[in-house]
Amino acid sequence: MKAKISYTARYLPERVLSNFDLEKMVDTTDEWIRSRTGIEKRHLVGEGEATSDMCTMIAKQLLEKSGKAAEEIDLILIATSTPDYMVVSTAALVQDKIGATNAWGYDIVAACTGFVYAMETGSKLVESGQYKNAMVIGADTMSSIIDYTDRNTCVIFGDGGGGVLLEPSKDETGILDSILHVDGSGSKYLTVPAGGSLHPASKDTVEKKMHYVYQDGKTVFKFAVKNMADVSKRILDRNQLTGDDIKLFIPHQANQRIIDAAAKRCGLADEKVFININRYGNTTAGTIPIALDEAVESNRLKKDDILLLAAFGGGFTWGSMLIQWSNK
Ligand code: UT7
Description:
Blueprint: E1 3-11, E2 15-18, H1 19-23, H2 30-37, E3 41-44, H3 51-66, E4 75-79, H4 90-98, E5 104-108, H5 114-127, E6 134-141, H6 151-154, E7 159-168, E8 174-182, E9 190-191, H7 203-207, E10 214-215, H8 217-238, E11 248-251, H9 256-265, H10 277-280, H11 287-297, E12 306-313, E13 317-324
Parallel strand pairs: 4-5, 4-6, 11-12
Antiparallel strand pairs: 1-7, 2-3, 6-7, 8-13, 9-10, 12-13
Helix pairs in contact: 3-4, 8-9
The protein binds oxa(dethia)-CoA.
Oxa(dethia)-CoA (UT7) binds next to helix 2, helix 6 and helix 8.
């Protein structure tokens, strides 16, 4: 038995930060940001709004769209690198906020690949036959770990998330295949150095700005171009597919130039590549499920269409997933 995506949802906070706003905050230009990344604006949470709030909005939409009661949800998986708390998972907070009294769940930390990792976990649990209604959500409040005086990082990231309901498929459609990787030797190139058990929060860590994202952009860029392209091409090859067989490619939205390189390597025409980085920036675990919900909303997926997902991120982590679209 396969697992299928039956419903999708997304949430973007109201507040918008444009490139022109950033020009007033750091030494940057709209032209630099657009030409180097493809980003024009990004959304940021409001005062007091956290990752669990965004995930709860997404979870409530999934309940509303599916017509299911919260009690029917048996699993909640949340991919995030920006949980509300160090201890108490975001999944636990969401379970309580929606009243999913029969669910269990936990958070998955795999940076920008988090949603694909969570989909792999969720789909395997549904395929086991033990779980019938699994919520898989990817969301990040990147603004909580970004230094808005550092032009190397603050122009790239945004807040937001999306999610899906996974159910047992009634036919051969659903999640077909996946390839996932982790390589911790890349951990130093993209990280938040303090706040964990190695460097607990202290006056010193705060003064040294160690609670913000540190990124060696050039190294991450090279890694991403190679590995997102490779892992996308490999999943096509091992399923005897080419770019012509793919209806839609939803890549992690980190940089337009990285997406273009991956699409080219797979022989995918521009119109098959879903792009929304211009509107949201990099929302980390949120990019793929946000794009997926927008694709569904604009009727870009019909039954049996083949969808390719691909992501890379801190860790390093990277992976791809092949899905044959199902009816609800
Ligand atoms: O989801 C995973 C998360 N991370 C990524 O995917 C990031 C991958 N990396 C990237 O997307 C790119 O490396 C960046 C967008 C981060 C940077 O683009 P780049 O083309 O690699 O620029 P660069 O780092 O080589 O910097 C070129 C110049 C530098 O100035 P000098 O040394 O040539 O004088 C930077 O200081 O651009 C400067 N620069 C900026 N200038 C204006 C760096 N950031 C900015 C900025 N505005 N915001």
